[in-house]
Amino acid sequence: MREPALREELVRACKVLYAAKAAGDGLGGHLSARLDERQILIKPRPVSWWKLEPQDLILIDFAGARTDQPGQPSGVTEWPIHARIYAARPDVQCIFHAHPSASTMMAALNIQMEPLDQDCASLTDRLPVLDNGAVSISTPALGDEAARALGQMGAVLLKNHGCVVAGAGIAEVCVAACKLEKSAETMLRAASLAKLPLLSAETRSAILAARKGVESGSISQERWRMLQDYYLGRADA
Ligand SMILES: [Zn+2]
Known about the structure:
The chain is an alpha+beta fold. Helices cover 43% and strands 13% of the residues. It is globular. The relative contact order is 0.15.
């Protein structure tokens, strides 16, 4: 995708993530896309997720320095999450980091995702947790730690802090980020009603086996269009 189209798509993604509450209260976090081998297009911290315009997005290099306004601070203290995951994962083109309440609380309470519904099932056994003492990921070494914790997965929870979702494109990341927060809300609700774990090992295995191979890239694209339609009123999206 060329830069102008990428900026438009990232702005729509920020608005959907905010409207869907996947970006928490919108006071922290960022969404980025890999622009080329040298630059990352990223949402700057002080701009609203909802009122963001394509020209508000900034460009940084893999050392966190502005390339669109050299010498100016980016204001994105957790840029190493993005830079080091892109460096470790050539397949990743889009990264989301925020502090949404349900997934953050789920990790803080050591609640494991169980396949209670289809969304939860798609994240069960695929949601590592990085427990680094709730330190902000503001150095390359900490960024490497987050990249290692993510491994080849699509999301990692940062204990007492937030979450990171990474994927091959904006559609995949937005769909996964919305699903993560919804599934975490489901698990918190379930944990308030019954003792964990909720499912027997047999039931859990049977559900996961039945769901093998269900997710695909085309489903992400379809769901991304539906999310835009629902939250932005873009029937033509
Ligand atoms: Zn953070």
